[in-house]
What does this fold into?
Amino acid sequence: MNATPRCLAIDWPAPATVRAAFSTRQGGVSQGAYASLNLGSHVGDEPAAVAANRAALAAHLGLAEAPCWLEQVHSDILLDLDDPAAARRGDAAITRGVGRVAAVMVADCLPVLLCDAAGRQVAAVHAGWRGLACELIAKTVARFDAPAAVLHAWLGPAIGAAPAAGTWISRASPNCNSPRSASPASLPAASAYTMMPATTSPTAATATPVAWRR
It folds into this structure.
């Protein structure tokens, strides 16, 4: 088994001080439905395998710190990773810390990475329909010290929208202050660097975009 994580480089005009990558399902040690680079500890995979996969990803990317893994709950909660007292329950993360890694896990939801033109802040957003309806991306943009006009954004692979999806989301009225825990079946693994609907598995959640400052 090839236990070297396969990651995809992210093509965006970020400054040289910002690094980013997007993991795939290839290059881990998980077995069965979780094969092989499962990074989700909440889907029933063996904890030792998840820990090994996370460690392998950090080593492969040469990270000074491990990614700050979130307990994602389809909310509008943005976490400041520079606050050591902050909980790790939410769906977006922002940091100014050099070497600190913002990360989210996605399946068919939209992953968004953000940074400012000077490379002083980075953020990662898990933008499912609930987060979009609650304006989580806009809330994250507003937390940057720099104005929105000088931010860079990368939109990752996400499921294709049905013709009426935009109307449905605009009419939705989610309670953004009451996060909903996602079931394992709603967090399958995304497959490739594509904007086509993701290839799914019934349990594993593995596709992870990460961003950090050097």
